[in-house]
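Pipeline run #58 for the internal structure catalog. This entry was flagged by the ingest filter as a single-chain record with no existing model, so it goes straight to prediction. Upstream metadata was stripped on purpose; only the residue string is passed forward. Reviewer on rotation: M.T. Logging verbosity set to normal.
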Amino acid sequence: LAAWRALIHPDDQPHVRMAFESQLRGDSDTSQTAYRLRARNGEYRWVMSSARLLRDAAGKPLRMLGTNTDITEQRHTQKRLDQLMAALSESETHFRRFFDEAQAVMLLIDPADGRIIDANPAACAFYGYARTELLDLRITDIGQMSQAEVAAEVAQALAERHGRSILQHRLKDGTLRTVEMYSSPYHFDKRLALYSIIHDITDRIEAERELREAATVCE
């Protein structure tokens, strides 16, 4: 434990310790904690630590099973999104350059009907559609959500100035991928739009599912 704790960023150690001790006390046998962990090269990476505590018949802790998933890009994306929203209020040109050149999947969505207003090259590559094809679609055409559910997500993003949701998107070839979608309202071409950054987290979700199955087998 001392070796592991030494790798945790000093600013994150208090809340990681609290989560760990809460599990040992029996408040919950499972936990999910985000913190920065130092890699061998000295760089700190954000990880999502999902863990399950196994106990013996008397309730004594035996071992902990878990996964550490690198979520550095997701954390950076949220930070960039916040910074970008502030900068975009001053520069339409800056937005267009960032939107077109970014490697992250980005969409502009009409909050009124869910229609895709614009898609960057990374979005076209991810979904497998040409840009003109994506602009003929609504977000409900690629997402596994009803129009009512989309409307609720949109309302939350507009009210809170940002939103985060985890859902499934269908690619052009029919493949389903689990994505994490960050959205913020943005005035585009003199109208309100939702600016969304999308991360594929299918592998992370699968790793967490395997963790739950492994814990069940061990028990």
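catalog note: The mean pLDDT is 83.
catalog note: The chain has nine helices and eight strands.
status: ready for reviewer M.T.
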